[in-house]
Amino acid sequence: MRRAATILLGLSLVVAACGDDDAQSDATSGTPAATATSAAAESTTATTTVAETTTTAAATTTAAAALTGPAAFFAAAADFVGEYSGEWNNTTFGSTGAMFINVLEVNLEAGFVLIEIDLDGNVFGLADPDAFVIEISIDGDNLHVGFSEFLGGSSFEIDEFGNFTLNAEPLSLGLPLEIEGGLTDIGFGGSYNIPGLAEGTWSVAPDA
């Protein structure tokens, strides 16, 4: 855009210069120089318009660039408040169960997202767990998930494309758990891995 503005500015100066020469020639022939003055004024207006457009575009780009990392996550999360349902599949042992996610609240001012998760079936080979709530919030420049009864302490990371990773060590499991996911054509989905024990997939879609 700057290059285009520079080229236009250069052209306007050339037009203005040519206009001056024409003005002198016209003065000799008795023709008023108003035409040259008008051309120069139009060129100046065009250059000013380009400059204003460039400034506006730069300001818009700067504002968009400011929404990165955690800020971008919270801004995007506000569009996903609601209930989702689907299933999880343990590809190691062939077990499966229903999965429900409810994005309860996105508080942009306080900087946190509340999500309720309910997993049905033999989760991690154990009895059907109760639904639990996790809170994703900003900790400095990063995102983290606070302690929850089911997941224990955990951390959360997300990239600029919306792909996230949640690392935890459920108290009932005593082993690390890594959950990866992101947006899909129908909602959210991804995979999970318990190193040395099991791995699987999960997916949910918005409830009608």
Distance between the termini: 45 Å
Strand order of the largest sheet: 1-2-3-4-5-6-7-8-9-10
Quote the beta fraction.
35-45%
Shape: globular
Q: Please state the structural category.
A: alpha+beta
Give the helix level as a range of percent: 25-40%
Tell me the number of structural domains. 2
**Arithmetic mean of pLDDT:** 72
> What can be said about the biggest beta sheet?
10 strands, antiparallel, barrel
Enter the CATH topology name of the largest domain.
Lipocalin
Level-2 CATH architecture of the largest domain: Beta Barrel
What is the tally of helical segments? Answer: 3
Number of strands: 10
CATH level-four homologous superfamily name of the largest domain:
Quinohemoprotein amine dehydrogenase alpha subunit, domain 2
Radius of gyration, in Å, reads 30 Å
CATH class of the largest domain: Mainly Beta
What is the succession of H and E elements?
A: HHHEEEEEEEEEE
Please summarize what this structure is.
With 208 residues, this protein is an alpha+beta fold.
Q: Overview of this structure, please?
A:
The chain is an alpha+beta fold and 208 residues long. It has three helices and ten strands, in the order αααββββββββββ. It has helices at 2-29, 34-66, 69-77, and strands spanning 82-90, 96-107, 112-119, 132-139, 142-148, 152-158, 164-168, 177-183, 188-194, 198-206. It folds into two domains: 2-66; 72-206, Lipocalin. Strand 5 and strand 6 form a beta hairpin. The longest helix has 33 residues, at 34-66. The radius of gyration is 30 Å and the shape is globular. Helices cover 34% and strands 38% of the residues. A ten-stranded antiparallel beta barrel has the order 1-2-3-4-5-6-7-8-9-10.
